[in-house]
Write a structure and sequence with these properties.
There is one protein chain. The relative contact order is 0.14. The strands form 11 sheets. Strands 8, 9, 10, 11, 39 and 40 form a 6-stranded antiparallel β-sheet that branches. A 4-stranded mixed β-sheet has the order 2-7-6-4, with no helix packed on it. By secondary structure, it is mostly beta strands. The protein is built from 4 helices and 40 strands. Helix content is about 10%, strand content about 40%. A hairpin with a 5-residue loop joins strand 20 and strand 21. Helix 1 runs parallel beside helix 3 and helix 3 runs antiparallel to helix 4. It has 2 domains: about 500 residues, 7 Propeller (Methylamine Dehydrogenase, Chain H); about 80 residues, Immunoglobulin-like, CATH 2.60.40.10.
Length: about 625
């Protein structure tokens, strides 16, 4: 009987994991840092203002760091100004497994050579040359290639008796895109239940962990400085549901000052949670370009608004209501819809985006379909991040079900949109570039980047490269025969496309495996690599878990940053004890792709399902 109950909980886990698919840059230290650390430096707690580096990083000191994948361009005039002629650069030392030799240096006879490290660790170069008086001098330069930090949420669940008791522990982890081991950067939160509520805890744990990951954000610091992470952290308790906007860094640990909660909301179990609104909730998190402020959708008392706060917790601002009336105005009466009442489909808010370092934009749906899954009319609004600023309507669009968007440098907007579908059809999702009509603010199509024609084709969960020239996204349209019986049989692959439309979309070479909706791609290592969520069916076809994968931008062999660990161990009475880790990478924010290809936001299931579970507990 005990074995049967254990089997039942594993089956339950499979169904819940399926439900979860519905969710939705250089230092000069004197002491060499541990190259196995994602940042190469565990002693720095605060990142200076700045932006992430690019694929080529200029080195202007005799000791510096680059992310593996970046090219180091050495400024010889700054490092060895006494050398005025006859420059000769050589490789003195490199990691034992490296193939970098003197001939690997480009422009080795020039003041500004460059090379691309191929392994983690220290590379020692020497430049020799002539001084103005004709004498010869040599200078040594040490370049350290460090791993690229990436963030994941870890859920550890143990069940002594799966049908009666369970314990879950949640952490935020940092790992390395090139193999550095994951470690916790915040304090673990543990919850235990018994008396028949083990399966309830399982539901709540998956809800909270996955939704926090897919609706969070990360900001990459210069090599050798901390990167940052922010996410809505959902906690269930008999009294209600608490959501905290939590932050940490890639070098923080439990108890560190920078690992903390910036804002908190609470949904009481005594309140009736209506399908179309939430009394108090925090949706999404998005870093400003310099990583110093965070924008998020903040529902308080049933009124949705765009808020910002400093990474240090200072300067919290409620900038504007987010609900558009449809006549060019905003109202404080609107809440964030999360469930389409007629179809019980998850819809959720679209993630806000920073137009520039001081302006935030968001989308509000209008008209009769505003609270429905179709949502074909929307407005784009922008507000300055300062007290008392007035929001301005930037664009008005109809006939496209937008799921997420971002601003391009030329003032246009790129969006993933679903075109209206005919009866009994899935419809098509494209990546489209819009501009606003100067007179009417109406959206006009500049170019369609994907131009799909086959019903069911998908382009979604996109992310712009650091220079905003290329979009990485999930593309698909074929039915995967191995997943034909799952909730999402569409085979989607990581792909890229230039935003100027100069090339057709193409899969990233070497990438295989179905993409995990919600855990969208991210550009890391100064734009030299991409991470994305891949569906992991290694445990069982009916248990489509997620794992975080990195790949160089030009393609290659992806290696999993994190794998799910699921096991069943013999217990003392002849039964089985379940012990597993589920790990979700940071996505691109909760998206809401309407219809059968929707992942929406799992937060809604937490509010509705969680409230039901709380009520059951209280009644017992």
């Amino acid at each position: 009987m005990r074995l049967l109950r254990t089997t039942a909980i594993v089956v339950t886990l499979a169904s819940l994991a399926g439900l979860a698919q519905l969710v939705a840059c250089g230092g000069d230290d004197e002491t060499p840092a541990d190259p196995s650390s994602p940042d190469g430096d565990a002693g720095t707690d605060a990142a200076p203002p700045g932006t992430a580096s690019g694929s080529t990083l200029t080195i202007s000191s005799s000791r510096a760091k680059v992310y593996l994948g970046q090219t180091a361009k050495i400024d010889g005039a700054a490092i060895a100004p006494e050398i005025v002629s006859k420059h000769a650069w050589t490789v003195v030392a490199a990691p034992s497994t490296s193939a970098i030799k003197t001939e690997s240096i480009q422009d080795a006879a020039m003041p500004t050579p460059s090379f691309k490290p191929d392994q983690l660790g220290l590379f020692t170069l020497q430049v020799s040359g002539a001084k103005a008086d004709g004498t010869t001098v040599s200078v040594v330069v040490i370049v350290e290639a460090i791993d690229v930090p990436v963030f994941v949420r870890d859920l550890h669940v143990t069940n002594g008796d799966p049908t009666l008791a369970a314990t879950s522990t949640t952490n935020t982890l940092v790992a390395g895109a090139y193999g550095s081991a994951a470690r916790a950067i915040d304090c673990p939160v543990t919850t235990s239940v018994d008396g028949g509520d083990g399966s309830n805890l399982l539901v709540q744990a998956i809800i909270g962990t996955r939704s926090g990951a897919v609706s969070g954000d990360s900001w990459e610091g210069p090599p050798g400085t901390p990167s940052r992470v922010a996410l809505p952290d959902i906690r269930f308790a008999p009294a209600g549901i608490t959501v905290g906007l939590t932050v940490a860094t890639s070098t923080s640990r439990c108890g560190a000052a920078e690992a903390k909660v910036l804002d908190t909301t609470f949904v009481s179990a005594n309140l009736e949670v209506a399908p179309a609104s939430v009394p108090n909730f925090i949706f999404n998190a998005r870093f400003s370009p310099d990583g110093n402020r965070i924008a998020y959708i903040n529902d308080v008392g049933g009124s949705a608004r765009i808020s910002t706060v400093g990474f240090d917790g200072a300067g919290k601002r409620d900038l504007s209501p987010t609900t558009a009336v449809g006549d060019g105005s905003l109202t404080t009466l609107g809440a964030t819809p999360i469930i389409a009442p007629s179809a019980a489909e998850v819809i959720g808010p679209v993630t806000p985006r920073w137009k520039d370092p001081t302006h935030v934009g968001w989308v509000s749906f209008t008209g009769e379909t505003a609270a429905l899954a179709a949502r074909e009319s929307w407005e784009l609004w922008v507000v300055e991040d300062k007290a008392g600023a007035q929001a301005e309507r930037a664009m008005v669009c109809t006939g496209s079900g937008l799921t997420h968007f971002d601003f391009l440098p030329d003032g246009t907007v790129i969006a993933a949109v679903k075109h209206p579908a005919e009866a009994e059809k899935l419809g098509i999702m494209d990546l489209v570039v819009y501009r606003a009509n100067a007179a009417t603010k109406g959206c006009e199509v500049v170019r369609n980047l994907t131009k799909y024609t086959v019903d069911g084709s998908i382009a979604r969960d996109f992310a712009l490269s650091p220079d905003k020239s290329t979009a990485a996204f999930f593309a698909g349209g074929a039915i995967d025969p191995d997943l034909g019986g799952s909730l999402f049989p569409i085979l989607t692959l990581l792909s890229t496309v230039p935003v100027n439309g100069s090339l057709a979309p193409a899969p990233v070479p070497g990438v295989t495996g179905r993409a995990d909706f919600g855990v969208g791609p991210r550009w890391v290592g100064g734009g030299t690599a991409i991470t994305w969520g891949q569906v992991d069916v290694s445990f069982a076809p009916g248990l489509p878990l997620s794992r975080l994968m990195p790949v160089p931008v030009g393609g290659g062999q992806p290696i999993a940053v994190t794998n799910n660990v699921i096991g069943a161990l013999p217990s003392g009475d002849g039964g089985l004890s379940v012990d597993y880790h589920l790990r979700f990478g940071m996505g691109q924010g909760c998206t809401a792709a309407p219809g059968p290809i929707s992942n929406g936001i799992l937060i809604a299931f937490g509010l509705l399902g969680g409230a039901t579970l709380i009520a059951r507990r209280r009644s017992r």
